[in-house]
């Protein structure tokens, strides 16, 4: 990959096509493969796979491993740049597994109680994300009725999987919380430990000091976990 290219633009380009993602994932896992092998393994039509390979070659993340003149056994693999970029976007191919459940432990229960006490009727939902599953541990019935399962899945993907606190980089600083404000509501995201995040949604009618609230969420989790 040409280092003059903006890495974020390359990631965005790859992520915008499921075929590019499928090809990149398969080559990362298998090492090398022909277009036919990829097509059969990922269940995408051969023309889509061939086009994705050409596009990824142009971006410098995939290379042909045999002479260009060869017409059969055309094996492709990832370049060093492809090996480097894949781990940063692999989460985009994951299915979103989510469920609505009661808090499973004291730490999660403590977060729900804190959110209800702090936000009152403005609280919309409290969710736990542990890098494997998303668990909705509190959801206002009116809010839940506003979303279909497909819409809820898309919201979870946008908030938790496609947008990660770990991707935010500031020299000598660690990002462990952030607030995303929408038209009618906001979402506070707090990382309480490695691979464990809470996100708390509330209407914008509530006036709350978010840095202090984020600190309280982290403290409540750590105290209940100790």
TrEMBL record:
Alphabetized InterPro entries for the sequence: ArsR-like_HTH, DUF7522, WH-like_DNA-bd_sf, WH_DNA-bd_sf
CDD domains (alphabetical): HTH_ARSR
Domain of life of the native organism: Archaea
Name assigned to this protein: Winged helix-turn-helix domain-containing protein
Organism: Halobellus rarus
